[in-house]
Amino acid sequence: MNTLKKLIDQYILDHPHERAPSKMLGFLINQSSVFSRKNFLGHFTGSAWIVSPDRSKVLLTHHKKLNKWLQLGGHSDGEKNLLEVAVREAKEESGLKIFKILSEYIFDLDIHKVPQFADEPSHYHYDVRFLLQANPEKELIIANHESHDLAWVPIHKIFNLNSEPSIKRMILKTKSLYKS
């Protein structure tokens, strides 16, 4: 928890205009079992925003349960190191084995409501996102059972697939990091 607190504190300093980080910090400090999917108030998840080496494409999954295009990621299942969660989920959901961690700092934070599904009530995901790189020319992607599809999407076409504010924010962050 201490490491995540430090990462969120740093993110708040770097992104003072965003509101989600303060809410996430409050959730982390004031709630228990924040890394357990059994906490139906909400729980932390780890995600990977995976860019190609030339930064022109992002690997996205068409999530079965949510029926939308998203970054790869998932539940921490008790793991407190959310960067490790993001890498684990990226491997499981893409079939890729080789990733370069572009930063150990948080790339983006988002709180979103997950609808009721089967026996799980609606709850919040406190999603911590990290920036990774993989090479679409070196390995084939293989969608797992959680996806309808998996694709390297040109960055200028992502907003056509998912226009949510957090996706737009990550697109803009990616473009601002890699301006030539």
Low-confidence stretches: none
> Quick one: biggest sheet?
8 strands, mixed
- At the third CATH level, what is the topology name? Nucleoside Triphosphate Pyrophosphohydrolase
User: What does the overall shape look like?
Assistant: globular
* Series of H and E elements: HHEEEEHEEEEHH
Going by CATH, the architecture would be: Alpha-Beta Complex
CATH class: Alpha Beta
Write the topology of this structure.
Blueprint: H1 2-14, H2 20-30, E1 42-51, E2 57-63, E3 68-70, E4 72-75, H3 82-94, E5 100-101, E6 108-114, E7 123-133, E8 147-154, H4 158-161, H5 165-177
Parallel strand pairs: 1-7
Antiparallel strand pairs: 1-2, 1-4, 2-3, 2-8, 5-7, 6-7
Explained architecture:
With 180 residues, the protein is an alpha+beta fold. The chain is 30% helix and 29% strand. It has helices spanning 2-14, 20-30, 82-94, 158-161, 165-177; strands at residues 42-51, 57-63, 68-70, 72-75, 100-101, 108-114, 123-133, 147-154. A hairpin with an 8-residue loop joins β6 and β7 (123-133). It is globular and about 45 Å long. The model has no long low-confidence stretch (mean pLDDT 94).
What descriptors fit this protein?
180 residues, 8-stranded mixed beta sheet, Nucleoside Triphosphate Pyrophosphohydrolase, globular, alpha+beta
Quick description:
This protein has 180 residues and is an alpha+beta fold. The chain has helices at 2-14, 20-30, 82-94, 158-161, 165-177; strands at 42-51, 57-63, 68-70, 72-75, 100-101, 108-114, 123-133, 147-154.
